[in-house]
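From the pipeline queue, job 12 of 40. The input is one protein chain; the requested action is below.

Action: predict structure.
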Amino acid sequence: MIDVKICGLSTSESVDAAVRHRATHVGFVFFTKSPRNVAAAQIGALAGPIPPHVRKIGVFVDPGDALLDDAIRAGRLDAVQLHKVTPARAAAVAKRVETWVAIAVRTAADLAIAPSFAGAAHRLLYDAKTPNDALPGGMGLRFDWQLLQGFDHPLPWALSGGLDADNLPEAVRVTGAQMVDVSSGVESAPGVKDVDKIAAFLHAARQL
């Protein structure tokens, strides 16, 4: 089975479904403009029952230190995933906690920034680039997976953007991904996780 992060969890029911169906990672979004936003005050109750073998990832958009510190402490996060950050900022955060950096991809040119994060982050996450006024992720958009064929990845990486149980096998076949991230693909509405879709996605992943 490939590694799977079920992202944007905000209820105990969705957390339980992700853990029960063997997700390797779970993600919590700390971004007030997102329909999946959770507050640092909520994260303790959501993350507390998660067993140690399931890694807890906090997702942030260009966060300040106070938000990072509060969320990491309250949720006992294992890593943070940063959107819209520079290599210098990622490197500063990576001195304190395992750091993933999301790279928004629409064309091959968007991948050119990836090498600049070598030594500044622990993992890259390739996600679909959204329109300028949209949220940085969770929009159900995908990019051309063939862009990753033959790409010289500077760091361990994960694939995100528009994945669901039906297209997951093709995505993995085309890109060679060993880790994937899903959010809107396991929802019935923006921010509303569907436990049956979570189960189906993780079942599909176990076949790979």
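Job complete. Residues 115 and 154 are 6 Å apart (CA to CA).
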